[in-house]
Design brief:
Layout (H helix, E strand, L loop, with lengths): L6 E3 L4 H10 L3 E4 L5 H6 L7 E4 L9 E3 L3 E5 L4 H6 L1 H6 L1 H7 L5 H6 L2 H7 L5 H8 L3 E6 L2 E6 L4 E3 L2 E2 L6 E8 L6 E7 L9 E10 L2 E10 L6 E2 L1 H7 L6 H10 L13 H22 L4
Parallel strand pairs: 1-3, 2-3
Antiparallel strand pairs: 4-5, 5-10, 6-7, 6-10, 8-9, 11-12, 12-13, 13-14
Helix pairs in contact: 9-10, 10-11
Length: about 290
């Protein structure tokens, strides 16, 4: 199939892109295009204007700040995959990006594009939820920071105001030596996950001092399992504890679709949560 007719715009600066976005009606932004182009071809999106962000070099960067990892919206998933700083300081993101599509799609796909597309099963949005990421959105009138917990406004709908685009995402860093794990179940490697689980643990004195558990693919947006996080914090890590945490995930409200039933998703949520927590515990640095 072919996409509908549209006017193509190729800004070379952020200010130029924001000006276009502010004055054009029914415009869509083109980042990596790995989701937008199929949507255009299937007529699921019919914009009058396409604003290509690929010429704006300032939107592609990776910076390690004192307390956070800052990643530009146009940073390729391939660059995230091979960046040594991400692998050492943000290993959860490194592990997750290896399960995003295939090498060919990661060559073009971007962090910002994935977050704005907000597919419920996308790996990087689950990482953003797990790490309490903060999204920077900018318009010609200024910028604002949006906690990722408030970023999904609905199914595949980001909480962006008219004229705004995402410029960067900041991921607060966990203490060095923390445990991490990202596990998922999909029909084939490279497919979107049916269910995924992201776990982060910090331990000291033989107890869990901080925990994060997030499930992707079970709802329109990633789900932080706060009940399990409270259960884990202050507890002695053990197989039975992680099994109990997994079983608690069976109580979550999950969606059903043409791929699997709600009961199947609950089973995956329980099993993958337990596996992620066990793996994260095994990876905690012992001092």
């Amino acid at each position: 199939m072919k996409p509908p007719r549209f006017a193509y715009h190729d800004p070379q600066s952020l200010s130029e892109a924001l000006a276009l976005l502010g004055r054009l009606d029914n415009a869509r932004l083109l980042a990596g295009g790995q989701s937008l182009m199929p949507m255009l071809n299937m007529r699921l999106a019919t914009p009058d204007h396409i604003i290509d962000l690929n010429g704006i070099a300032d939107l592609a960067f990776i910076k390690v700040e004192p307390e956070a990892l800052a990643v530009g919206a146009m940073t390729r998933q391939r660059d995230v995959e091979f960046d040594a700083r991400i692998r050492s300081r943000c290993p959860l993101m490194h592990e997750a990006v290896l399960q995003v599509g295939h090498r060919q799609t990661r060559n073009r796909g971007t962090l910002g594009g994935s977050l704005c597309h907000l597919d419920p099963s996308a790996e990087l949005i689950t990482v953003a939820a797990a790490m309490d990421a903060v999204v920077t959105a900018q318009s010609k009138n200024g910028s604002r920071d949006v906690p990722f917990a408030e970023f999904p406004a609905g199914l595949m709908t980001p909480a962006l105001r008219p004229g705004e685009l995402v410029t960067a995402v900041r991921f607060p860093l966990w203490r060095e030596g923390h445990g991490h794990a990202f596990v998922e179940f999909s029909r084939r490697h490279g497919d979107f996950a049916i269910v995924s689980a992201a776990a982060l643990l910090e331990e000291a004195g033989g107890k869990i001092t901080r925990a994060s558990l997030t499930l992707g693919g079970i709802a329109p947006a990633p789900v932080r399992v706060a009940e399990v996080e409270r259960m884990l914090t202050g507890s002695v890590p053990a197989i039975e504890l992680f099994r109990e945490a997994g079983e608690a995930c069976r109580k979550l409200e999950v969606m059903e679709d043409v791929h699997v039933t709600a009961a199947y998703r609950r089973q995956l949520a329980a099993v993958l949560s337990r596996r992620a927590l066990e793996k994260a515990h095994e990876r905690v640095a012992r001092h």
